[in-house]
Amino acid sequence: MIKLYGITSPNVLKVALMLEEIGAEYSLHYVPIFTGGQFDPAFEEISPNHKVPVIVDEDAEGDKALPIFESGAILIYLAASRTMDFLIEGIEEYTGVTIVSPKAEEISTMITDKLGRGITAYKGMHGYGKRGHVSDINILFTVITRLEISRLRAEVDAIDPHAFIVMQSLKDTKGGMIKKRPLK
């Protein structure tokens, strides 16, 4: 977890944007610089120059958290650490997709035929409406790359524009049709 210390200044905002873009888990901690908060002894330990932004990477290697200050240095650190993640874990990012639709059979065929991906179908119940209408339905699950998300959405929308779709990032997958292969 990364702690970001600052206020709503441009330099703090660009660090927050970078943290969002790389998908880092972080928390924001307000430093009241207009009332001298930057001179607080606890803050001075992580920012000896009394400026914001500052990040503290609690996941850094070693015995204690690593504070980094100055926005340029922070951005370089974040970019370099994300690059190392790509080298270690691979650049491919997978997304798990759950689809609830009365047209599950058609969507299933599309996923296997057009996208070349496998699916898992399981029985479930879905409910909606003010009176709580509930019925049995097949629920589909598939794993795709982030580059295939827009194509999957378009194909599902063409079959059932009212399909309920939930997507989540997956950190790790194994087995099935998950293997590095060129996109069609």
Number of helices: 5
Percentage of residues in strands: 25-35%
CATH homologous superfamily grouping of the largest domain: Glutaredoxin
The main sheet comes to: 4 strands, mixed
Order of helices and strands: EHEHEEHEHEEHE
CATH topology title of the largest domain: Glutaredoxin
Radius of gyration: 23 Å
The separation of the N and C termini measures 37 Å
* Proportion of helical residues: 25-40%
Total beta strands: 8
CATH architecture of the largest domain: 3-Layer(aba) Sandwich
Instruction: Provide the number of structural domains.
Output: 2
Classify the oligomer: single chain
CATH class of the largest domain: Alpha Beta
Low-confidence stretches: 180-184
Mean pLDDT, all residues: 85
| Helix and strand composition category | alpha+beta
Principal-axes shape call:
elongated
**Strand order across the largest sheet:** 2-1-3-4
